[in-house]
DNA sequence: TCGCCATAGATGCGAATTACATCCAATTGC
DNA sequence: GCAATTGGATGTAATTCGCATCTATGGCGA
């Protein structure tokens, strides 16, 4: 199952699903939810996450857990075990100040990227304009 | 040299360099330049490309050549050898109709992605708003 | 009490991607 | 002749991805 092939929207066409989990996109979303919703554990995070993903793709649980581990080694989150509730113990993650800063940095990066994409999209739209302007003026 | 670590802008912070070549981002840019500037060969493409990249990262030549090969097997470009000029033979690539369609699909994807990012950035910006509104009203 | 299911965390692994290095060939300048 | 430049292409170690699988706890019915 090569990446680039989206089994959800089918076929060959590009779609953000085919872009994979891209943990670099998972990272900021995790940080955001942690700051917005407060401390929580991976399994629950997996649910709230899907409302904030940047791509159409669902976030893989494996990718999520590994992202949390990496964020912890980088000091952007801290974790504690919660054994109070019923069921298996929960790994509770909290965002640190460093994590909040990291999220702001991420926002700056995504802002740039977003604008680059926007301008690229504009460029593509105006591609055939000159040739077609003579025949179809005013068509968007 | 782990990904996620940008040797150009240094350090730990996220930057689109650290996002890698992401051939799925190289693909649309290559298609765009091919449609905008007309048929050309890889080496020259490598130059014009850098003005249109979506990220800060330079596009790796290896990635470029492999992208062109993949685009050809997908039928989005065709190629011919140009042995007329001086120097080594040039592999001239031209975009096909299928390639133009593909580029438009890419534009739609990037448009969506761009908007998702924009809205995410807004969300991050409004994160501490409620808490700080009491003390610093009107600060952007 | 045994088996089964849901929750929860975590890892294994083949395939894909990346980043960089390297190789090959032809031409130009010296 | 030979180094430098232009051009194309591949090799490869490290990393990431996507999916499957493993472990463990507790609830619940038979």
General description of the model:
The structure is a homodimer. Chain A is built from five helices and three strands. By secondary structure, the first copy, chain A, is mostly helical. The first copy, chain A, has one domain (about 15-125): Arc Repressor Mutant, subunit A, CATH 1.10.10.10. In chain A, β2 and β3 form a beta hairpin. The radius of gyration of chain A is 20 Å and the shape is elongated. Chain A starts with about 20 loop residues before the first helix and ends in a 7-residue tail after the last helix. In chain A, about 30% of the residues are buried. At the A-B interface, α1 and α4 of A face α1 and α4 of B. Chain A binds a DNA duplex (30 and 30 nucleotides) through α2 and α3.
Write the layout of secondary structure elements.
The structure is a homodimer of 140-residue chains.
Chain A: H1 23-37, E1 40-41, H2 42-49, H3 61-73, E2 77-82, E3 90-95, H4 97-125, H5 129-133
Antiparallel strand pairs in A: 1-3, 2-3
The first copy, chain A, binds a DNA duplex (30 and 30 nucleotides) through residues 1-4, 20-23, 41-44, 60-63, 65-66, 69, 86-91.
């Amino acid at each position: 199952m090569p990446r680039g092939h989206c089994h959800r929207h089918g076929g060959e066409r590009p779609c953000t699903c085919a872009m994979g989990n891209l943990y670099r996109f998972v990272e900021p979303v995790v940080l955001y939810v942690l700051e917005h919703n407060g401390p929580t554990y991976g399994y629950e995070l997996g649910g709230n996450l899907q409302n904030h993903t940047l791509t159409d793709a669902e976030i893989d649980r494996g990718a999520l857990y590994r992202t949390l581990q990496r964020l912890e080694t980088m000091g952007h989150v801290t974790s504690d075990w919660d054994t109070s509730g019923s069921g298996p113990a929960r790994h509770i993650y909290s965002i640190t100040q460093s994590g909040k800063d990291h999220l702001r940095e991420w926002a700056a990066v995504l802002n740039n990227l977003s604008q680059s994409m926007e301008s690229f999209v504009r460029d593509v739209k105006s591609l055939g304009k000159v040739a077609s302007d003579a025949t179809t003026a005013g068509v968007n």
